[in-house]
Structure formats: C-alpha cells, structure tokens
Write a structure and sequence with these properties.
Length: 490
RNA sequence: CGGGGCGUGGCGCAGUCCGGUAGCGCACUUGGCUGGGGGUCAAGUGGUCGCUGGUUCAAAUCCAGUCGCCCCGACCA
C-alpha cells in the first residue's frame, strides 16, 4: 500500500479521494464542489479528448463554441427539459460589485441588477437550438453535426472529485436531421464511438444499452448509455447518447422544408462524455498502490529512474540511456527521466502512485551488462533486457499492458455479473456481493421505484444483447417486458 | 435539507476536559554521507490557533454567535 493512501478494502471512497489528491490529478477548489484539475490530470483528460475529438471529426462532426450564458427565458421553452435541470442551475442576477461602506470588503451592487437573469449553462441544448432555428431552413442544411468542448455548471448537493463536480468539462454534441431514422442512426453511431473510446483507449469495458424511461435524459425520446463497473462493483454511467426526436425542434420552432417540399420539424440528437471518465479510469484500474493508467492515455508511459551513486555515475548512465530515450521519443512514446535527488525506493513508489505503465531502471550494474530493467505497473513483474532490445520490448509491453488491464477489468465485471430468478436472491446479491444483476423486469415504473427504494439498485440499462423471452419480472412475477441490468450506481 | 466529523506553520495532527512561554511528524531550505523498494546526520525557515464578540490580570483552551470544509443519506452525468 502506498504511504498516505487508504486501502480500497478499508474505505473505497477515501481510497479514491486519496489517490486523486496524492497522485496530483486534481485538488479541491476554494468554492464548495469545485475542483482544480492539475497538470497531470489535465494531460490525462487532454489525451482522452484528443482521441475522441479525432473520432468525432472522422465521422463528420465539427467543433463550435456557444456562450456560457443562457437567457432565463429559454428555460421556459421546453418544460420537460427544464424540469430536469432547474433545481441545479447557477443564476447570474447582477453584473457589478462595489466596496462596502467600511471599505473592508466588496458586496453586490444592487444598482447592477440584470433586466433578465442569465443562467450558467447546465447543458447547451436550449442555446444551441435557438441558433439552429436561424441556421436551418431546408433539408439542404441538414444534417447539422456540431460538437462543443466546454465547461458546464450543475449545482449538485453532493460532489465528488471528477465524478460529480459543480463545474465540469465535457463535450456535447448536438445534431439535427431530416428523419427519425437518421437521428436514431446518429445516436447509435455515437454510442459506438463512446464504446470504442472506453474500451480501446481507457481499457474500460462497457455495457451498451438503452435507459429505462425514468433514467433517460430530460427531454429525450430515448437515451442510450455506456455503463462500466468500478472496482467496488458499483456502476458508472460513462457516457450518454440521446435521441431527442422532435422535442427540441418543437420547443424552439425549428422547421425545415423537406425534399417533398413540406414543412417539418427537424429531428435531433445530443450526446456527451465528461471529465467523469477520468474518475472511471481511476476506479476501474487503480489499486492500493495508486493509479494504473492505460498506456494509450497515460501522460507519461515510461519513467526512467537512473540509479547513480554520484554525478560521474549519472553521466555514464545517462550516456547509456540517451539513445533509448531518443528512439522512444521518435516513436511517439511518452518517456521521462526522473533525475531528482530522491532515493530510488521513493521514486518507485511515487511513480507507481502516479500509475505510469512502465518503469525503466538503470544503474551501473546494468550499464556493464548492457541491460536495462523494465518493471510494469499492471502486474508484479521486473525483467532485464538488453539495450538493443529495449525500445522494442517497451513498445510491446505498452501494448500488452493496455490489453491486459482491459481483460482484467472485463473479467472482474463478468465475475461480478449474475443472473437471478428470485427477488430474494436479487436482494442478497445486491446487498452482499454487489455488482451487476441481470434479470427480468415487467417494464413498469412502479417496479423500478419499489426496487430502488428497497435496495438502492437502479436499472442501469436494457442491454442490446438482452432477451426477455421466458423471463419473469424479478419483482412482480409478471412476464418480463425486458431483460435488464440492475446495480448500485455512482 | 437531515445525520456525523473537523477547522492550530504547506500537509497530517497533539494541546482544549482542568485558562498561564504554541508543540510533534511529514514536507521545505543549506550542507555532508548515501543511492537496486518510501536513506541518514547536522543546522535552519515557517503559525494574528477559521472569524466576530464576551468572560478574565491572562483565552488555542471557557461562553455566545457566525463562516467554512469533509463524510454518510435524499438528488444527479
């Protein structure tokens, strides 16, 4: 266990916070619920962002930026959508401060009260659709495929680093289409991109499926999500893709002239993933030593630790290793030397805490053997390799680690996913082992709520590969309408 | 908003019950010896004890108020 990090077994929530703070991913901001994403955490986010941005652009989407502030009046436009966010909106009411009479502090200048209050976006559907109304007239203007990288604010009661902060970073895509089919296709295409991002880059296996009505996005016809299992067996909704139907078009009066020369409301989608993904990476792969970062997104993939008794040794060692560092850098491997004055043992622990996939140790012993030592973070393993094999081995190892942690996470999830046939069994699994429970559901909200109230478990999704045939509802005993995944969730 | 905990050098804490010189560990600075799993010795730097008011000769400590944070719940990505 790493010094100062609570073990997962003792308290998972505290472990999570400890790891994030001590590894330097993030820190608490001065305003309750806010978070400073520190350089190490931000680079991790940037790497995720870079991968996703490319996939979105490759599939025909373009980036744009819409304002942070939304007129309050926009929120009256779409009742259902507003209902979902009204309780957690930050509202700007004034635009000026003044010095207090005693000259000691500042206060809001009542003279500066705004005519119309302004909402800090909790999501951008309303402002984007107000603009789409201006931009869309004909089917020739469609599809409109815009993505935005932005910050949003949701004034949550309880927050947790990365998983739920008052302000967070995300991307939100907002698309407009001619037909329902096209919108549905887009919604699913994005879900598939999210699945790729999670599995291929974050090494985070996910279930894909559709949300139950009560869990779907405010104002959506259908919400699809990717759901991952964390190290404590709870579920994390890691990304959502919504088919909004014509709801927003109707709310904002966005019509277009169709190919048949008829006026119709456009069909919409919206979708997003956020810095929450970073929290997911921490919880899916992390252990008591700290982070375990997937090589593809790790800010540092190889950390070099020279073990030298004095400055002369250090020079000899660096001469030996410089070539490898250059070759790695040329191949795009993110490699860094820790030549600080800390002891080797300290560095080992430090970089394990930070989750660097490969550690390269080199001392005089290795220099004379023309070797380096490679240690991997995902398993306990150290090997000596010849200098001329080092770059190749590192390349292979990075690949292997990426695969291994994905498999490990998938195994863990599968081991903790069970099918149950009685409610007694259901409750037993949820309260004792935890994890995902696969079972029949009669499709009623009443059942969903009753189960949630009694067990805290919610329907994570109706998986694409599910089949309700011959299943009974776990709660009511009626014929099942869906086969679903239940779990306690973040 | 309910329950719990906590505010004392950068971080973690002791001291508060029973008022009397503000302390410990880590970190930090300088130098020496070290270096293959969180090294070591020496010398240093750093604090209006969350804030406001009260009691007192005297308040980190007692009293009243207030602000803030963390954890657990309800709500949520």
């Amino acid at each position: 266990m790493s010094k100062g990090v609570t073990s997962q077994k003792d308290n998972y929530a505290t472990w999570y916070t400890d790891v994030i703070i001590k590894s330097g991913l993030a820190d608490y901001g001065p305003v309750k619920g806010t978070m400073v994403i520190r350089p190490y955490g931000y680079e991790l986010w940037e790497n995720i962002k870079l991968a996703l941005d490319k996939m979105l652009k490759d599939s025909g989407h373009v980036n744009a930026y819409f304002p942070l502030f939304i007129p309050k009046s926009f929120f009256a436009s779409e009742a259902k959508h507003v209902e979902g966010f009204a309780k957690e909106c930050a509202v700007v009411t004034h635009h000026r401060l003044r010095t207090t009479d005693d000259g000691q502090s500042v206060e809001v200048d009542p003279e500066s009260k705004l005519e119309e209050e302004v909402i800090v976006r909790p999501t951008s559907e309303t402002i984007i659709w107000s603009m789409y109304k201006k931009w869309i007239q004909s089917y020739r203007d469609l599809p409109l495929l815009i993505n935005q990288w932005a910050n949003v604010v949701r004034w949550e009661m309880r927050t947790r680093l990365f998983l739920r902060t008052t302000e967070f970073l995300w991307q939100e895509g907002h698309t407009a289409h001619e037909t329902d089919e096209e919108a549905e296709k887009e919604t699913l295409k994005i879900l598939e991109i999210y699945r790729n991002l999670a599995e291929d880059y974050l090494a985070m296996p996910v279930l894909t499926g559709v949300k139950s009505d009560s869990e779907k996005f405010a104002g959506a016809e259908k919400t699809y999500s990717i759901e991952a299992m964390m190290g404590d067996k709870k579920a994390l909704q890691a990304g959502t893709s919504h088919n909004l139907g014509q709801n927003f078009a109707k709310a904002f009066g966005v019509t277009f002239q169709s190919r048949e020369n008829k006026e119709d409301f456009v069909y919409a989608t919206s979708w997003g993933v956020s810095t929450r993904l970073v929290g997911g990476v921490v919880m899916v792969h992390g252990d008591d030593k700290g982070l375990v970062l997937p090589p593809k997104i790790a800010p540092i993939q190889v950390i070099v630790i020279p073990i030298a008794k004095n400055d002369e040794d250090k020079i000899i060692i660096m001469n030996q290793i410089n070539d490898i560092i250059t070759q790695c850098a040329e191949k795009g491997i993110r490699i860094k030397v820790d030549d600080s004055n800390n002891s080797p043992g300290f560095k080992f622990n430090e970089w394990e805490l930070k989750g660097v996939p490969i550690r390269l140790e080199i001392g005089l012993r290795d220099v004379s053997n023309k070797e380096v030592v490679l240690a991997r973070r995902d398993i306990v393993d150290k090997q000596s390799v010849k200098l001329n094999q080092a770059v190749k081995t590192i390349t292979n190892l990075l690949d292997e680690i990426q695969k291994n942690i994905l498999h490990k996470a998938a195994d863990f999830r599968d081991k903790n996913t069970v099918c149950v046939e009685s409610y007694k069994e259901f409750k037993n699994v949820i309260s004792n082992n935890g994890g995902f429970v696969r079972c029949g559901w009669d499709g009623t909200v009443e059942t969903e709520i009753a189960i949630k109230n009694e067990t805290k478990a919610t329907i994570r999704c109706i998986p694409f590969n599910s089949n309700p045939k011959d299943l009974k509802c776990i709660f009511s005993g009626e014929d099942a309408m869906y086969e679903v995944i239940f779990a306690k969730a973040y």
